[in-house]
Structures are given as C-alpha cells and as structure tokens.
C-alpha cells in the first residue's frame, strides 16, 4: 500500500478498498501520509465522490483514529442534536436543557465558530464563569443527574483526531464541499461521542453549506445511513437557512435570546425549531412527553440554570455588552423582502463575534440585532439593525457585508418562508 496509488485510484474514478482507506487515514493521523498527499486525495474525493461502502469505512477509520466515548449504563437514554451550521443558530442552548427536562441525557460535544457561522461554545463562554472543558467522568455525573442531564462541552483531543487534522486541511485547500467528506466528518464525531440517538438539523439555503434542497437531502441521507449502520438511531430534518434564525447574531445576545425562549417568550422561529427538534429527540429516546409543555411550565428553565451552574457559570450574572453601537435605518417605507443570512453572518463576524483564524479570541458583546425580519412592514427611518462591537474600526467592514444583504419592496404579502423543509 502506498499513498500515490491510493490517490491515483481515486483520481481515475476507482473505488478504494477497505485496506486502502484504513491505511491512508491511519497514516495521515500518524504523520506518515503527508498533508500534500491527503490534500490531493481530498480533492480527488471532491471530484469523484465515494460510494456508501467507502464513506462508511472512511467514517470508521476516523473514529478508530481516537477513542470512543461510552455512555451505556446511564439511567437515562442518551440523545444528541447536530446542526450543519447557520447564522443566529442558537437552538442548542434552549434545546439541550429542554430535552434533559423531558427525561433524556444530552451529551453535546460542540465546537467553536470559524468564519460566518457562530460556535455554540463561543456563545456559552459569554456567560461569566462558564467553562467549556469537562472531563469524561464529570460528563457522566452530569448526565446521570436528573436535575441537570445535559452537558455542552468541547470535544477532547482524542475524539476523531483524524477529522481534526483533515478538517483543518480541507478548510485551506478548497475541499470542504464534498458530501461524503462532510457526512463522514460530522458522523465520525457524533458516533465516537457515544450517543444512542441523534437528530440532525441539515441547513438549506443561502447561509448554509448546501444551497439547494437536493444537495441537502443527499447529505442528510448519507448521514442517516452512516448513523443507522453504526447502531445510532438517526433522523434528519431539512430546515431553512436563507435568513438568520431569531433576532440576534452574536455570542452574548444569542444567550439572552435563548433565555427568553426558556422563559416562555422569544422569537417564533426559534421556539418552533426548538420544539420540533425536541419532539424528534424525545421520540428517538422513547419518552412519552410533549416538550412544548415542559418549555411552558418552566422546567426547561430550571434545567438550563442547573446546566450553566454545573459548568461554573452564573445564570444570574449580567451578560457582557459591546462598547459601541450603530443603527442601520430603513431608507424607505415598505416590506422587508430579504435579509440574507450570509451577509448578516459575515457582518457579525467582522464586528468581532467570530474569528478569522483558529485560536483567535471573540468578543462576547459583538454582533447584530435584527429589528425586522422578512415579511415585516417598515417605515422610513425605522431601525432595521443595530450593530454592536468593542472595535469601532470594524463598522465599515460590517456595512460592506450588509450592502446587498437586505431589500425593502412594495409587496404587503408575507413571503412564504416555511422553516421545516423536510424530514
Ligand atoms: N462540519 C464538520 O464538522 N465537518 C464538515 O466537513 C463540515 C461541517
């Protein structure tokens, strides 16, 4: 076995054998297969694809590059959710404690943001004292405790290390956009995490990896097959990501919005997606309870407070705010017909909510508040957006990203924008 023949096999449209896949993923993890060789192979996979068998083997090889977590024996069923990433997507924050309050254990290993989509850990780190690192024994204790039951934490270095290296390489070699590579990347981490059941929120639209419903359906199908074949009960929903979710994009502001949802308020789209995903998770966990009731009666809020507290955070501490704000106003009256997720995501990122390079710090208070969403009537001079940052030199870059991100039209008809596009 050698790297060059594996690359040329895939380059010429051939199928890789199980032995070739195991060898190349293992060699890459150990440093025996060079970055330039893995980059060439990734590019060949982008063009030639992988069969279902190859994708499953590739996923298993990435899981085998590290250690697998084991949450069997807990007194409660485990279930997790993964979103393929969107702007304003803070759903994990209200969802994990809600599903824990319904009686499941939610082991949620999350990431930090890179580029225009935010990271769940960056959001939670806006809470004073909150810590992303939790040891595996402590995770088990939290999951077993019915008053907490959910842990949102950073993945350890030993969880699918092959994926960590490969994802960093794909990020800088134009090889992210491949359905077998995305599916195996996400599912290797989720299977290694040891959850018994998984709900995938596959985003579709201008602000998502996959812009079309067909592409998103193909990714969802590949991930459900990988999960099912690995013994993880897996369901995927296809949900819209043309416009940001909720009314905020930015770390501390998204925490505040999540707390509003847990208190029984919050934006309708966040509530709808949270409850829809919670129903899928609760059903997969075999629990007979309606999450809408658990959200309404305050039990999810109690669980949130316990969850934040268990990771060193103070749920009552005031959240950080940015030092500078500027308001974007409507230049005419009419109906907001478009508010583009990508434009808002990039603007929030430039204001300091996200990072350009791994390891950069993020600003807790930076981001964008949206005072109107598509379908809302607006009048001349009315605030549309408030931009928040600690670094006012970031405002021009944010305005540039927002230049073509919204439109005000004549129509008073609400555009049809279903949130849940398929299952
Ligand atoms: N998220 C991942 O974890 N991996 C990908 O390849 C794409 C999105």
UniProtKB/TrEMBL annotation:
Residues 335-409 form the Pyrimidine nucleoside phosphorylase C-terminal domain. PROSITE patterns: THYMID_PHOSPHORYLASE (PS00647). It is an enzyme of class 2 (transferase). Its EC number is 2.4.2.4. This is Thymidine phosphorylase. NCBIfam families: PRK05820.1 (NF004490), Y_phosphoryl (TIGR02644). Pfam families: Glycos_trans_3N, Glycos_transf_3, PYNP_C. Homodimer. Belongs to the thymidine/pyrimidine-nucleoside phosphorylase family. GO terms for molecular function: thymidine phosphorylase activity. Keywords: Glycosyltransferase, Transferase. PANTHER family: THYMIDINE PHOSPHORYLASE.
């Amino acid at each position: 076995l050698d790297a060059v023949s594996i690359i040329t096999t895939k380059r010429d449209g051939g199928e890789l054998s199980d032995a070739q896949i195991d060898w190349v993923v293992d060699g890459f993890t150990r440093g025996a297969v060079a970055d330039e060789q893995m980059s060439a192979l990734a590019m060949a996979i982008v063009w030639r694809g992988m069969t279902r068998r190859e994708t499953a083997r590739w996923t298993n090889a990435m899981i085998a590059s590290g250690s697998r977590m084991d949450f069997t024996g807990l007194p409660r069923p485990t279930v997790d959710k993964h979103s393929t990433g969107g702007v304003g997507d803070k759903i994990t924050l209200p969802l994990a404690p809600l599903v824990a309050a319904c009686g499941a254990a939610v082991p949620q290993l999350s990431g930090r943001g890179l580029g225009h989509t935010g990271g769940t850990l960056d959001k939670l780190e806006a809470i004073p004292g909150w810590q992303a690192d939790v040891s595996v024994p402590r995770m088990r204790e939290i999951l077993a405790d019915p008053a907490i039951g959910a842990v949102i934490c950073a993945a350890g270095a030993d969880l699918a290390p092959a994926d960590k290296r490969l994802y960093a390489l794909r990020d800088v070699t134009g090889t992210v956009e491949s359905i077998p590579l995305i599916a195996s990347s996400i599912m290797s981490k989720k299977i290694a995490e040891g959850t018994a059941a998984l709900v995938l929120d596959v985003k579709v639209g201008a602000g998502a990896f996959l812009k079309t419903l067909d592409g998103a359906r193909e990714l969802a199908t590949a991930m459900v097959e990988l999960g099912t074949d690995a013994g993880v009960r897996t369901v995927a929903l296809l949900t819209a990501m043309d416009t940001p979710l909720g009314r905020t994009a930015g770390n501390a502001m998204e925490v505040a919005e999540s707390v509003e949802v847990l208190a029984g308020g919050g934006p309708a789209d966040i509530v709808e997606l949270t409850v829809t995903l919670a129903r899928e998770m609760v059903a997969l966990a075999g629990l007979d309870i309606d999450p809408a009731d658990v959200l309404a009666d305050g039990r999810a809020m109690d669980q949130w407070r316990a969850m934040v507290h268990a990771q060193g955070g103070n749920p009552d501490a005031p959240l950080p705010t940015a030092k500078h704000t500027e308001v974007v106003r409507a230049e005419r009256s009419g109906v907001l017909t478009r508010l583009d997720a990508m434009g808002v995501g990039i603007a929030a990122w430039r204001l300091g909510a996200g990072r350009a390079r791994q390891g950069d710090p993020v600003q807790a208070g930076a981001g964008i508040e949206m005072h109107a969403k598509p379908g809302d009537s607006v009048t001349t001079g009315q605030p549309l957006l408030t931009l928040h940052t600690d670094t006012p030199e970031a405002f021009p870059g944010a305005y540039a990203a927002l230049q073509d991100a919204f439109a005000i039209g004549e129509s008073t008809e609400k555009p049809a924008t279903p949130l849940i596009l398929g299952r």
